[in-house]
Design brief:
This protein is of the alpha/beta class. About 45% of the residues lie in helices and about 20% in strands. It has a six-stranded mixed beta sheet with strand order 2-1-3-6-5-4, with helices on both faces.
Length: about 160
């Protein structure tokens, strides 16, 4: 199954051009290596309203199956990605975030500080990833095996029953 992704990097410094976005391109490379496509990619500051607007627009226009956010999932005062995500999703998908944290804990105790979440808006899966390129890629690699099936289920694809 060919999946269409949106990658939203959330960083005040990258949005201002003070620091290059390394996480978004690293995620795009991994996605393309799976044979999937990146339909949308953007950088926004850590602003809850702007994040909500982007997530809603991307999910509602039906151009992407999965939206990956990178950044804004920690404890810093401007880390508001989980709050924005919670406002726009209709259903949570806690198993994805739990799996990412569990796998990350094998590498670093800092994984306990992740507030990342995942959820569903319409037929789009939204997943928060860490802001570091290494963390973002490692977390995505953890959940890669289930993404095609998740999208099959979200889109009522008859083939979803075959992969049980």
């Amino acid at each position: 199954m060919s999946l269409r992704f949106g990658i939203l990097t959330l960083s005040d410094r990258s949005a201002k051009g003070e620091r290059a976005d390394a996480s978004g391109p690293a995620l795009a490379d991994l996605i393309r290596a799976q044979g999937w496509s990146v339909a949308k990619q953007s950088i926004l500051p850590d602003d809850e309203s702007a994040i909500c607007t982007a997530l809603t627009a991307w999910a509602d226009i039906d151009e992407v199956d999965v939206i990956l956010t990178t950044g804004g999932t920690g404890f810093a005062p401007r880390d508001v990605t989980p709050e924005a995500t919670r406002k726009v999703i209709e259903r949570e998908a806690p198993g994805l975030a739990e799996a990412m944290r569990a796998e990350s804990l094998k590498k670093t105790p800092h994984a306990m500080l992740s507030r990342a979440m995942a959820g569903i808006r319409g037929r789009t899966l939204i997943i928060n990833l860490p802001g570091s390129p290494k963390g973002a890629v490692e977390n995505l690699q953890t959940i890669l095996p289930v993404l095609s099936h998740a999208v099959q289920l979200l889109t009522d694809d008859p083939a979803s029953e075959k992969s049980h």
